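Bumping with the actual sequence this time:
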Amino acid sequence: MKKDESNIHHWEKQSLEGWRSNLARTVSGFSLYLTLSGLCIFLLPFSVFNQHSVVLHTLGGVLFLLPLLVYSISHLKVYWKYPLTQAKFTGWVGGLMLIACVISGVVLTWDAVLGSKVTALWVNTHIVTTFGVLFFAGHHVVTSAMRNRRKTDAAHAEQVAGGIGSHRKVAAIFGIGGLAVTGALALLITPTTFVNQFPSEYDLDP
């Protein structure tokens, strides 16, 4: 049963609604999965797991576009007039990094599906901005959560902590669940093993 929130401060209420938002949780979950799968593709050696990761990472990125656009517009509307703080600054930088990452991802997907090759410029842009998003957007989310916990009055601290905790759990389910699905596909859909040798009756003499 929800506690009375009628006396909660305006900024606290906005923050609580943000942490409870299903759209925000979905965007955080997609972001976490795409970041983790992208790091796997970049850091791990070529493997069946990474081949499936590339496919799911691409599909996830395409599905991520619309929720990200809708959430970004609503988030900007809410916090546009708020004073510039450390959390807001890292949010802006992380957002710009995310835009560059998304654009480069769209270009790479287009080139891979309809083009003849991908270019190093877009590959490197996608890699660099991924680390930028990880640092700045990650910093933005963590510092925002810490500030909300610290600044919220004692009467509503439990609701805010619960909203942050449930947001974190949903995002983790997306991220870890996506990697688990990738692992399952790697076990279920294995590559064909070719026998690279001539049959015994084959005449090797010219």
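The tokens above came from a reply further down the thread. The chain is about 75% helix and 0% strand.
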